[in-house]
Write the structure tokens for this entry.
Amino acid sequence: MTSIVVRDLDVDFAQVPRHWLASHPVATAISNGINMLFPHGERFFVRSVKHFLPRITDPELRAQIKGFFGQEGRHARAHDQFNQILRAQGFEVDRFLERYETITQWIEARQSPELRLAITAAAEHFTAILAEDAFRQQVLDSADPRMRELLAWHASEELEHKAVAYDVLQQVNPSYALRVLGLVFAATLLGGFWIWASTTLLHQDGWTWRRVFREARGMPRREPLLPRVFAKGIRSYLRRDFHPSAHDTTRLAAEWYAARGMTLPDAA
């Protein structure tokens, strides 16, 4: 199993510019859209896995789970801090966040613990693919240095613990049907809330999706992020023999950091 190291991030976000990704409002809004989802989403993941901790007897998996809790808790706090920066920059985010949390809490209360775990396992698969994409596509190279630190740290740890929720699900209930149902919920909720959050921020910057698509014409052709991530994620997750660790990303973050003369934060 991959070593899961809990690290603290010490970054002051106060001077992060409003358009911190490639100095572009659209790229920044799309990135901020998913960043807004992380605090509540990460805490849901922890609750979903923690529910089944008493049933896990394997000491190595239990250690991985505790590392997962530590990493996800710190991710949630860091993105809470960044949401404060969005407020300071003049974005009205609380109305969206209140609705997002209300809807997800309503859904959570009406789903079984096993389905919540299956949703978590699938969502962790998507976040791992996002993390891999950020490193392989050099997305973070055009980010403000403080946000680069935040997102590289977060992405590195997502790759470290990408199999934890899935391994717990396989011990609790290895049903393929349950796995697929969790995938349907995760893809729908993550995709829907991400688009909603990004739209909320774009409108506050004076953009509409029509304007986004109009100005994208004539630019270099590149597969859009959502299809690139979601289509890849869904295809691989639907394989009967799927396991997150089958796709090796153990050296990806270290190589990215080394190529830029950077290092991951120390262990907490």
About this structure: The mean pLDDT is 93. Residues 59-88 form the longest helix (30 residues). DSSP finds ten helices and no strands in the chain. Residues 25-259 form a domain with the Ribonucleotide Reductase, subunit A fold (CATH 1.10.620).
